[in-house]
Amino acid sequence: MHIWQLLLLFGAAFFGGISIFFFNKGDHTKQLKLVLSFSGAFLFAITVLHLIPDAYHGNDNLVGVFILGGFLFQVVLEQFSDGVEHGHIHHHEHDHHPVFPFAILISLCIHAFLEGMPLAQGYQNQLVFGIALHHIPAAFALASVMMVNKVPKSKMIFFITLFAIMAPAGYFFSDTLSRTAAFNLQQYFNRIMGVVIGIFLHISTTILFESSEGHQFNLRKMVVVLLGISIPLVGFLMEI
What we know:
By secondary structure, this protein is mainly α. It has one domain (3-87, 95-232).
């Protein structure tokens, strides 16, 4: 895996998070929804066009089970993350006092770590961009949650950095195990990819369904969704 890809994974999440310090004034809900719509469409397109066909190349009949498992696992994670990974922002209080959302941070870190693991097998191109795009609004939402819960700025930067290193850490962990003969992790990469596919399917469809207010037609959303689908589609058509 190239160093620029690791920097992209880290930088997208890190700068997506710290951008809250520059854009926290005013209501940016509409702009965030457009970014989410684009990332959701992009994720859905690369999942259908690239990740699902690649995962089934090994003729492993259990890949579908792991896709379902990843989908359900994301449902469980969202019970703790409150949907931050697809742009939801909540204010957490205990006895009317703001509290640090540890459950949200931990679930997001697990989520990002799992997404980074299949990169060790060579799922670099489209998947790297998909993860990076997806982590920008997720990191922004995480930072927003911390800000409304009055987390000190220094701690916010530390936890944003922690989240940003999770996907690269997942890659290095998986790569290290795959190089160790005792684990022989490579035979399980398609199943790990199945879990990530399930996660992506849940997140992308949730984003696309929830980013419309009252399910009304929105021209700007339609344009960014078509753009998000077109980029992976053009890449796919150029490869065949």
